[in-house]
Amino acid sequence: MYALILPASTPFVLLATVMTLSWWEDHILPAPPVEPVEAPAEAPFVAAAPAQHPELPRDDTALTREVAGR
Length: 70
Known about the structure:
single chain; elongated; mainly alpha
């Protein structure tokens, strides 16, 4: 009979454990400081300019002229 009780009660034991830890975190652990800690002075983030892709050669440029010159 105990072999049936243990697997059936496992989810409830795990749920109770998670709920207890959540309550403990909310009520027992110290609260975070009210005033935010000063952030270190940093330069403001400036987004980099988008990369300039090289222009693709046109189909009537050097390669076509080389082939035509043969």
